[in-house]
Amino acid sequence: MRRTTRVCLIATTLLAATPAFAEPSTTAPWEPAQYVIAGGAMGLAKPGVISGVVSLEGGYRLGSGWLWIHGQVIAGNAGDDQGSGHVYQGRAGIEARACWAVQLCGIAGVDLGGYRGTWVKDGFPVGLTSETIDALAATPRMAGEIGDRLRLRLGIEFGLAAFGRSHRRIASSDSDMDQSVSGPLNAEVTLGLGYQW
Question: What is the pTM of this model?
């Protein structure tokens, strides 16, 4: 009888210690609370045409849900075959993130902030010689992310002027031209590499 009891105790101990018989983990995967991303974008931007910019952005999760606060700064060049200029943006907003096992996420958001675009004509000053746009812009954006703590983000965004002003300088004119600006400002494809924790 004692021998049978000892055998049962040994067998029970071995089964409990064997990983194959252990209960599956019910612990949820780790949940990020913030991120930073450095990247760039190419596309179209006023008052130039073709744009190429660099950006730095970050996000902070609101509680444990799917809403995040987002902020971004952007600087770069924009031009066409007649001149060149620059684009600057500083904006903040909110984004929704839907993730599958942390590694794959879909993102949609909108930012609000300042937009400045400049353009100066190359060569002999004839006709329009320069233009500057200052505007308050809303920027809807969508993106996909892949990775764990190190993330790759690919997205698209569209800038829309809520209101703003365009200042144009015309050669051989006694006065410059100012007019209001609304509607599309830029449309770009974005790519960034980031880290979340």
Answer: 0.81
